[in-house]
Amino acid sequence: MFGLNTFYLKLLLSNIKHKDDGWSHTTLSLISGGLSGATTLCMFYPLLFCQTHLAAHVGPLVDREYTGLLDCIQKTVHTNGVRALYTGFAIAANGMVINKAIYFGAYYSFNKTILDHSNSLVSIDEKDTKLPFWIRFGTAQVSTYLSQLFSYPLDTIGRMLIVQTAQEEKLYHNARDCFTKLWKSQGLSGLYRGMLPNMIRSSGSALILVLHDEFKWILSKMGLFGGDIQDD
Question: Which residues contact 91 (CB under 8 A, 6 or more apart)?
Answer without folding.
Answer: 154, 157, 158, 161, 175
